[in-house]
Amino acid sequence: MIPSAEECFEYMERYGMLENIRAHSIVVEKIANLMAQGLLDAGEDISLEIVTAGALMHDIGKTLCLNTNDDHAAVGKEICIQNNLDEISEIVGEHVTLKNYDKSRAICEKEIIYYADKRVNHDVVVSLEERLRYIFERYGRNREYLYPLIKENFDQCKAVEKKLFDKLNFRPEELAGMIKRGET
Q1: In this structure, are residues 115 and 157 in contact, taking their beta carbons and an 8 Å threshold?
Q2: What is the DSSP code string of 62-98?
Q3: How many CB atoms are located within 10 Å of the residue 99 CB?
Q4: Given a cut of 60, is residue 184 above it in pLDDT?
Q5: What is the rounded average pLDDT for all residues in the chain?
Q6: Considering the entire predicted model, what is its pTM?
Q7: Which residues of 136-174 are buried (b: 16+ CB within 10 A; e: fewer)?
């Protein structure tokens, strides 16, 4: 089942999603939908329903994991599976790190959400470079062994960015302004 936006907000309530995480998810959804619509216009086979639900629900497990060492993406995927949201469970499970990414395959919804999430720091649209600096500072502090993994993930995100924007009629640096102007 693909939940409606209203149902996604109900899940956010049910799982106690903090307001700041909800605000982040709403901005991710705006970016993801803007890109998905552009990709649809370019002839890509994208489901706006899946993009909306996947973006709103991508951090559904995050609040539950704040005081644990649990992987919030894995917890979120499990929440989706428990609630019969199979159509978005993989998106939620891979929004931090894409598994089996192949640049030659058709663009899919999980790539859009993975990318959109990397462009939002809290509830502000930022460049990938700004987000990378934040991730290093927030999650890499005193854990330098994570730096190569974080860097590798962002290198993959740059590849996803190229794949997506090769099809879009706007550039990555235009996203923030487009969101502010309400082009979603």
Answers
A1: yes
A2: HHHHTTSS--HHHHHHHHHHHTT-HHHHHHHHTSSS-
A3: 8
A4: no
A5: 93
A6: 0.94
A7: beeebeeeeeeeeebeebbebbeebbebbbeebeeebee
Domain membership of residue 35 as a residue range: 5-180
- CA 73 vs CA 18, 44, 129: distances in Å: 16, 26, 22
Buried b (16+ CB within 10 A) or exposed e, 44-69: bebeebbbbbbbbbbbbbbbbbeeee
| CATH assignment of the domain containing 159 | 1.10.3210
d(C-alpha 183, C-alpha 68), whole Å: 38
Count of structural domains within the chain: 1
Given this model, what pLDDT does residue 125 score?
95
CA distance 113 to 131: 15
